[in-house]
Design goal:
The complex is a heterodimer of chains A (119) and B (483). Chain A has helices at residues 7-28, 31-50, 77-94, 101-116. Chain A has 119 residues and is an all-alpha fold. The model of chain A has no long low-confidence stretch (mean pLDDT 96). Chain B has two domains: 7-249 and 456-481, Aldehyde Dehydrogenase, Chain A, domain 1, CATH 3.40.605; 253-437, Aldehyde Dehydrogenase, Chain A, domain 2. Chain B contains 16 helices and 22 strands. Chain B is of the alpha/beta class and 483 residues long. Chain B starts with 6 loop residues before the first strand and ends with a strand. In chain B, the strands form six sheets. Chain B has a seven-stranded mixed β-sheet, sandwiched between helices. A six-stranded mixed β-sheet of chain B has the order 9-8-7-10-11-21, sandwiched between helices. A three-stranded antiparallel β-sheet of chain B has the order 5-6-22. Classes of the chains: A mainly alpha (119), B alpha/beta (483). Chains A and B meet through α1 and α2 of A and α4 and α10 of B.
């Protein structure tokens, strides 16, 4: 598993997370949530491309990918809730570590969308 | 057998007139990615002919249409962003974040070029004398060429090419023979634009091709980025042959760290400035001056953070520092470290013998820190172009500015401080073309000129910004009376 120690590794992790969620919800037959995950994935790909600032690339510390492992095998309502909880926590943890406000805002919005699914 | 690269001349991919090809190696794996031709003067001449023939049609293409080509070029670069970035990593060795950042900055130059209808506008005055009006016209000049370096194989050509052709000139690029493949990918996108044949051309090669460019009477101007000795030769030879020349040379960039700096945040940024692109950029932080009691705190934090940097293959997203470009570069950098030690510097962090698992043949040097450096040492004066940060203690800001201004280079300098007065004094007095305040890599964005003073720049007009419009155009004054 990749480390979460660079701008790109965090964005790529988020993209992969959303790709996994897209597949998860497709398997569950929840096309709406799958579509939302795909939209977030595409947005994050754009953010990774457009908001990388070469002159302020700095090492990032204090994040552990093990904290954000998803149990994609659990398709129950509780399982879905657990997955969304992890996703929301991931975005809440990584957004403050990013020093480009536009990218940070995109990550915060993803987190907000995942949190909304918990209420 | 590796693929042989071709030149792009007159809208076609053509073989160079040479039997000599050099391998293009991935510095992390030592795999040969391609073979690049040592193009000859005849190849350059063909490119100049194609560019010259294209000029009249291209300069009369409406400026809004030329701007539209730039919009389309930008779209193609965005669509192919990830593939180009990956190739930059493969042939240069930098990290994928750095490659994406480089390409983003290159695209910003294309963005700038889309504004050419505004940037080329000029002024006029009615009735300068009775019934006489006077106006200035800005016109393209002809054929321009760029000789570009390995460290930013796509960004540096894009500093020049988009603006040059948006202004109505035609162009020849000679990419570095060490990193020509990513620029080939860009040229394939340019081919998709369906520009008139010959508007943009690419000739691979080394010294022979460069010499031919410098001396060819059909080329009006040259942009160059590289080392100071070569920049000086380029400037002297190019101007002796009647060309306008902008030649960016080497650097020795100093960073002053004040006692009032936010040390943790500053250190993170200095990490990027010193070790980003493995120190192989003309804006790399080379010497950190700890002012007063900032020195020891700075030294300890930098050493701790640098030791934690993950060195590896750039395509691994978690890699924080990649390779240097070649075994020869590694040997040169190591020998500079050894001479610094002989001259009295102390090695606080030694990256010379780093091993990267899975890439045992890779050309890696880990983050290196030298302390007790003094101004007369070679390591304080000469460009290393590698991941080596020299630390020096000075008593106050005055002394820091004195050390910085004694350098023969003047590319960039930065200060880390929370005191506005210190920042102002620094930007006012330091003789360097790019000043960073709490920014270690003082790289101007595309709409500002990329500065450079003293031995770091030869010429009058810098790359980027409005300087580039001046460089790529001539002004003509029309004095008009109707009888």
């Amino acid at each position: 598993m990749t480390e979460l120690n660079t701008f790109g590794s965090i964005l790529s992790y988020a993209i992969e997370l959303e790709a996994q969620l897209q597949g998860y919800y497709l398997e569950l037959g929840d096309e709406s949530r799958a579509r939302d995950a795909e939209k977030r994935k595409k947005k994050l790909e754009r953010v990774r491309r457009e908001h990388v600032v070469e002159i302020t690339l700095e090492p990032i510390e204090g994040l552990n990918p093990d904290d954000y492992a998803l149990n994609l095998g659990d398709k129950s309502a509780d399982g879905q809730r657990a997955i969304e909880t992890v996703a929301a926590r991931f975005y809440a943890d990584v957004a403050p570590k990013i020093n480009v406000r536009e990218a940070q805002r995109a990550l915060e919005k993803c987190g907000k969308q995942h949190r909304a699914l918990l209420s | 057998m590796a693929r042989k690269l071709k030149n792009y001349i007159g809208g076609e991919w053509v073989d160079a007139q040479t039997e000599t090809y050099l391998p293009v190696e991935n510095p992390a794996t030592c795999d040969v990615l391609a073979e690049v031709p040592e193009s000859s003067a005849a190849d350059v001449d063909k490119a100049v002919q194609a560019a010259s023939e294209a000029f009249e049609e291209w300069r009369s293409t409406p400026i809004l249409t030329r701007a539209q080509y730039m919009f389309r070029f930008k779209s193609l670069l965005e669509e192919n962003f990830d593939d180009i970035a990956r190739m930059i990593v493969e042939e240069n060795g930098k990290t994928i974040d750095e490659a994406r950042g480089e390409l983003r900055r290159g695209i910003e130059s294309v963005d700038f070029a889309t504004s050419v209808p505004v940037l080329m506008r000029n002024d006029g005055v009615e009735d300068i004398a009775s019934g006489i009006d006077e106006t200035t016209l800005r016109q393209p000049v002809g054929v321009f060429a760029a000789i570009t370096p390995f460290n930013f194989p796509v960004m540096v050509p894009l500093w020049f090419l988009p603006t040059a052709i948006a202004c109505g000139n035609t162009y020849i690029v000679k990419p570095s023979p060490q990193t020509p493949v990513s620029m080939e990918m860009v040229m394939e996108l340019i081919d998709e634009l369906d520009l008139p044949e010959g508007v943009v051309n690419m000739v691979h090669g080394g010294v022979d091709a460069a010499q031919a460019i410098l001396k060819h009477p059909g080329i009006q101007g040259i942009s160059f980025v590289g080392s100071t000795p070569v920049a000086k030769i380029i400037y002297e030879t190019g101007t002796a042959h009647g060309k306008r020349v902008q030649a960016q040379g080497g650097a020795k960039n100093y960073i002053a760290v004040m006692p009032d700096a936010n040390m943790e945040a500053s250190a993170r940024n200095i990490m990027g400035a010193a070790y980003g692109c493995a120190g192989q950029r003309c804006l790399a932080a080379a010497v950190a001056l700890g002012v007063g009691d900032a020195y020891e705190r700075m030294r300890d934090i930098l050493a701790e953070q640098a030791a934690r940097l993950k060195v590896g293959y750039g395509l691994d997203e978690s890699t924080q520092m990649g390779t240097v470009i070649s075994a020869a570069a590694k040997a040169r950098i190591n020998s500079m470290i050894e001479r610094a030690i002989e001259q009295g510097a102390e090695l606080l962090l030694d990256g010379r013998n780093i091993q990267v698992q899975g890439y045992e043949n890779g050309i890696f040097i880990g983050p290196t820190i030298l302390t007790n450096v003094t101004p007369e040492m070679e390591i304080a004066q000469e460009e290393v172009f590698g991941p080596v940060l020299a630390l020096m203690q000075v008593q106050d800001l005055d002394e820091a500015i004195g050390v910085i201004n004694s350098s023969r280079y003047g590319n960039a300098a930065s200060i880390f401080t929370s005191n506005g007065g210190h920042a102002r004094t620094f930007k006012y007095r330091v003789r360097a073309g790019n000043i960073g305040i709490n920014i270690g890599v003082a790289a101007p964005s595309a709409s500002f000129p990329f500065g450079g003073q003293k031995q770091s720049f030869f010429g009058d007009l810098h790359g980027q910004g409005h300087d580039s419009i001046e460089f790529f155009t001539d002004r003509k004054v029309v004095i008009e009376r109707w009888l």
